[in-house]
Records
---
Amino acid sequence: MSRILPRLERYHRPTRVDEAIALLRAGGRTTMLLGGGVSLGMLPRPNVREVVGMERLGVDQVRREDSVLCIGASVTLGRLDSELIMGSAAERLLRDTVRRTATTPLRNLMTVGGVIAGVGPWSDLPVSLLALGADLVLNGAAVLPIETFLAKGPRVLDGALITQVRVSWEGVTGGAFLKVGRNETDLALASASVVVFREGMHPRIRAAIGGLVPRPVRIPAMEDTLAGPPLDGGAMTRLIGSVVSPRMDPRADGDYRLALAGTCVVDCYEAARREACR
Amino acid sequence: MNVTTRLNGKPFSFDAAPGERLVDVLRDHGFMGTKFGCGTGECGACVVLLDGEPVNSCLVLAPRVEGRSILTIEGLGTPAAPHPLQEEFADAGAVQCGFCTPGMVLSAHALLLRNPSPNRQEVAAALDGNLCRCTGYVKIVDAVMAAAARRREEARP
């Protein structure tokens, strides 16, 4: 018997979103929705008795509609990597982010919906999705900005399922993601993603950071500062530190994370700006 | 519950508890080349190919493989007729204790199917989920590069 779900009694494979929601509601706290299942390795769920698998819900497509990339919640990061096209700055940013997220075998299991629903300080893709201003589609219909989701936390879903992520590439001319860990694909100690948009004659910047607080955050003051005269990592660190109180854990203390984040933001902006100027 | 899949190119059905992991199912059915290492997706000793892509079978619940195709190291080559990757691993001295080797070989196989001419960086990236605590990685990358070169040579008319 598995050690990750030792009390599991039933594995449901619904084919409709409403069916999955009904199963989750009926099962209550001992029923869990399963995307890729990678989190089970880190966080065993000893009390789970029923699992609702997402693999037959039909939310596993990657499509492009007008200027929006639509990613089904069950799409694995490995598959997303192979579907992204390099002609788009937004998609290049997503590819670079995906390739820094975990190892190859894990990326072939992790789903886009799973990494968003299970967001933590170490998460990579939500940082870039926040910088890009992505939207989440809930239950195949309602739209929730990822910024709202990340600000309020998973409870804002109120039982709804993330079925799709929508990323507009309208106006995106450059983007970059950086993170620091023990190696290329380690859980992030700190990370940053910066996107440069072109609106008429004027560039607009969106920037997000990860690793410092429980969920990735966007700091408007940081974006205003980036748009001004060049800034070094130290000054950016002080600015971020004036807005957030970074967490500490055995892997890194708060001041170290702040210093990493400040440097990541400045370096990211330089890379994004260079790409936008090409 | 009953699960029907294809294993190493042949139909394969098995009964499993809902929470059973794929690695346990495979080993219980005699496919001992799939190793149980960390159990948390860190080491890659349990890597198998699921629909052609490497995954950590310690994190895959058995019901999730319904209708899918699995390749284990036993499906790649045999002692009597080893796969070129297996031969190159042996020739390059890329095997010491051997515990990581099945996962390494399968990850490399998936890479070469997708990219027949990888450079050393691409090989290292493809093997980023497979840990070896004996050899270091130089000879392992050498072996994959040699297998890729051999494959290209054999494909020439």
---
Amino acid sequence: MSIFDYFRNNKKNSAAIAKERLQIIVAHERSQRNKPDYLPKMQQELLEVIRRYVEVDQDQVEVQLDQNGNCSVLELNITLPEAR
Amino acid sequence: MAKIIVVTSGKGGVGKTTTSAAISSGLALRGHKTAVIDFDIGLRNLDIVMDCERRVVYDFVNVINGEANLRQALIKDKRCENLYILPASQTRDKDALSQEGVERVLKELDEEGFEFIICDSPAGIEHGAFMALYFADMAIVVANPEVSSVRDSDRILGILQSKSRRAENGGQVEERLLLTRYNPARVAKGEMLGVEDVEEILATKLLGVIPESESVLKASNQGVPVIHDADSNAGQAYGDAVSRLLGEEVDHRFLSVEQKGLLQRLFRRSA
């Protein structure tokens, strides 16, 4: 970054900053919005089933739902603890 | 069929009630039989903005509970022949608005020959706001050119697209953006989001831009919807918005800084 860039960034007006911030947060929230309501509960119940067999933490289970045209893919990632 | 229009925003204080009062008055002034319903249960305010607060006998919840009939509860506007106000109740029980009850009242209004039903939504995304938008054919999303308002508007658009009756039946609520408290001078200086910016972020068709104006507070002080103030920018901008609602093509005004002439500047104080 040159010294000119520094001045240019300083010059950026607050409305442009607002627009940029809004575009990012709105895009993020829209991507969350279309997920079905049952996803958190399903994640919880899956975790309970897995826990009957292996000891895993909440944050070691990741549920991801992706949309590809007409087809939805449910991806389940479980990080198992290292074998003792 | 009556056209049901919800005036909503998510965020509070952006001008939903001002807009509901202005748009409903505007439609009535053009000869359309219009009802405006205050959905803000517990915090009724449309009545005071429309100067009928001392004429409230029965309210929306009374009608839903069968304690009064619709005709008893509707308040005829003093200024417009074709305008009727259905006030919110002051009860603190927000669940008083049942979905069946709201649907029945809307149906009765339709049978009474109302052409437009304006639903003034409470702020937030809870029950009252949900009931106000659920049956809507069209939504006027009121936003200020400011980050929290624009973000909340996007959330409300999401709810309209997934939780409304039209969405549930595979259809769509017609969405229109109304930008209020717009200050062209600050937009020109890069201190405020411009109308194109907000349109781009929300990807919603523009109904109108209401300039920031002293006449809006003056209007609510007096209980006269600002659309009656034909000399004010805000009143004229609301008039344009009503024309667009009725399908007319009207250019957007008051988007740039007014260039005052020298004489106007000199004599502004005496005017």
